[in-house]
Amino acid sequence: MALGIYFVHEGFTPEKYRSAIQQLEAAGAGSPTGRTYHFALESNGEVHVFDVWESQEEFDAFGPTLMPILSGLGVGLKEPMVATVENVLLG
User: Fold this and answer.
1) pLDDT digits (tens, 9 = 90+) for 15-29
2) Is CATH 3.30.70.100 what the domain over 3-84 is classified as, yes or no?
3) pLDDT at residue 1 tops 90
4) The pLDDT of residue 13 is above 90
5) Distance between CA atoms of residues 89 and 68, nearest Å
6) Domain definitions of the chain by residue range
7) Tens of pLDDT along 60-78?
8) SS (H, E, C) the chain
């Protein structure tokens, strides 16, 4: 069962987002197993992220790589919204 996970963290500027992506790539986690879609949405100078993951377990396995990177960038971490994906339409 696929999950949609929506992150709204405080202070996650476009510059910090780009740095996080670079650090994830350097760690070999730029395209983690189980993540099927990644969207970065900028609103009022902050980046919100929406991902689709194949399972909770695969998302949880990504956390130990992602969380220290975000913390190191000074991003104010908040709990993500998690929901079951009902449908995906392309186009």
Assistant:
1) 999 999 999 999 999
2) yes
3) no
4) yes
5) 34
6) 3-84
7) 999 999 999 999 999 999 9
8) CCEEEEEECECCCHHHHHHHHHHHHHCCCCCCCCEEEEEEEEECCEEEEEEEECCHHHHHHHHHHHHHHHHHCCCECCCCEEEECCCCCCC
